Amino acid sequence: MTPAASSCADGSALHVVRAVLCTGNAHKVTELAELLAGIELGALPDSIKLPPETGTTFEANARIKAAAGAEHHAAASGLWSIADDSGLTVTALNDEPGVYSARFAGENATDDDNVALLLERLAGESNRAAAFHCVLVAIAPDGRELVARGRVDGTIAHAPSGDSGFGYDPVFVPVGHDESFAVLGAELKASISHRAHAAAELAQLLGAPAAARSNAAPSAPDCGTR
Prior knowledge:
The protein is an alpha+beta fold. It has one domain: Alpha-Beta Complex (Maf protein). The chain has helices spanning 26-35, 58-74, 111-121, 181-184, 186-192, 194-206, and strands at residues 4-7, 13-16, 18-21, 40-43, 80-90, 96-97, 129-139, 144-156, 172-174, 222-225.
């Protein structure tokens, strides 16, 4: 695979051949593998366990996972280490569930459990504004770091609908649409979602083509060594 090249603000070149994706979430692996189709992605070996997500922001949690992947596998193998952290914020709930989105209803909660609790907490609430957020942190073998962010705004429906996607997709209705992500389907979601926006920005930073075309302008990246 021919190395891709891009550059940071200081003009230094970034050469990307392969990367390891640091997540235990099979749904995220599937989505990101498609969204970052221009990058040769591999999975983190099962023998490497990611540390707990103890950060208070999506970026902090993504960095924890990316750093662990880099330390225990990627750097020694000459690979970039890429990690995602994402979640839902709901205005009426003071931006909960936030970094606790995957375990909103408890450590072993299912997607259905989390959705049920969300709808229970919003019962009778007229303000149903919400947003999905995604932060991707990529760490190079030499320690350089890139951060890409994505966001999509929307509202929380009063009941689940659709059978596509995962997580809160059955109740999240993105701005400009009348149906949930789970009804709209994977193809449309891949062009407008928070993860699509972040992946498009990261692919641009790495000089790799993104499979999905994000409709949002990418935010300014963080580029450097941390």
